[in-house]
Amino acid sequence: MLFRGWEAAVDGPWPDVATVVDGVGGTHLVVTRHALVRQVLADPVTWRPDNALDAVTPIPVAALRVLTGHRFRLPPTLANNAGPSHPEIRAIVAEALHPDRVAAQRPWLTALVRTRVAGIAAELAAGRPVDLHARLAADLPLLALARLVELPDAPVGAVKNFARAALELFWAPLDADRQQALAAEVGRFHAVLREFAGAGGGLAARLRGAGHSPDVVVGALFFLLVAGQETTSQFLTLLLHRLTGEPEVRAGLRAGTVAVADVVEEGLRLEPPIVTWRRVAATDTTLGGTPVPAGSSMLLWLARAGRDPEVVAEPAGFRPGQRGSRRHLAFGAGAHRCVGAQLARLEAAVVVAEAAPLLDAVTVVRPPWCPDNLTFRMPDAFVVRRTSRDTVADTPAGEGA
Ligand code: HEM
């Protein structure tokens, strides 16, 4: 899903590179082919990441005042950092998320998910509807992140509200009143982060120890709290919803003929929580034969790249293990490729392995609803109830990319 209404922005089939004006006045070059998206991601000199966190709807003075009142600053740290500090900051974060440390979380996470699934099964059996987003997706990634990276001691609900407010403030089409309210929410939590950045242990202490300024520590924590848990929460919900409409895949999981890891990759290809990601052209150049003036906002349509027929055998079908399934760009590519990919994969694998059997006997009461947002899917809920004994759930999957 691009911004609502964008599907109609281009007359006929999408060209490889299309110029589109968004609803708030910005012009973007939308890149639709896998090879071109990859080419841009792989070359951070020609295509800089500086605009990755720019607000899509320019933030008006009144909301900016609210942010500065909380001493909000977002210097280049990770995703939007093209400078020489990027590799060092990235290495410190990557160490905290090392594959061995991530793998060590599996027993804890499996036990937690198993307990929750048992509770959900009992409620479904009693005939009650259950919101799988709230029960299996919303908080698990944050709990996992907190075990790997020391985080401010804030209630889960407060972190989730802050993260979702940040995704809306920076990536949604907004009016001034909403911006003001979101700026207050984001600013409040930013102040908590600032305090923690100065005194917290773990990752914050390591970044401070490496000589990074408090602004950099806050920026890294800010991005991790948003990118490092909200994205995976969204993905878990989108994947569970998709699997509800894929009875053959679930049968394969049951029979052991379909691998959980292949289901996760096919899910990332077809239901990526991050639909687009931005870069900015550093010089006058061309992309796939299209002239690109310096300063152009490049909107890389990651979700569409995952469905490129040049890469994947059956682009629209959920076929775990099919040719090209793993070549999706859901985690980006190149110097800024997602450092949390291993963690996200582990979380999704555990949830699929433990929760897929639940989906064999449910009907969707309320599919996930996704608000208008340039980049993030942000599903809000996913409610199911038990299907009567003689029917098996086969609900059509929701809105695709
Ligand atoms: C399904 C879940 C996730 C998806 C789809 C996802 C996707 C992405 C994408 C598209 C980027 C930009 C890559 C680029 O510019 O080439 C990114 C960057 C990043 N992600 Fe993730 N991510 C996920 C989960 C996570 C998790 C669990 C963490 C950490 C706990 C994380 C931490 C980061 C960081 C730190 C960056 C910036 C890397 C850099 O600029 O060097 N992400 N992610």
Automatic annotation (TrEMBL):
Q: Which residues form a coiled coil?
A: none
A Pfam family the protein falls into: p450
The organism's superkingdom is given as Bacteria
Membrane spanning segments where? none
* A GO MF term: iron ion binding
Q: Which InterPro entries match?
A: Cyt_P450 (IPR001128), Cyt_P450_B (IPR002397), Cyt_P450_CS (IPR017972), Cyt_P450_sf (IPR036396)
Listed A to Z, the keywords are: Heme, Iron, Metal-binding, Monooxygenase, Oxidoreductase
Similarity comment:
Belongs to the cytochrome P450 family.
Q: Known PANTHER family for this protein?
A: CYTOCHROME P450 YJIB-RELATED (PTHR46696:SF1), P450, PUTATIVE (EUROFUNG)-RELATED (PTHR46696)
The name this protein carries in UniProt is Cytochrome P450
Taxonomic source organism: Micromonospora matsumotoense
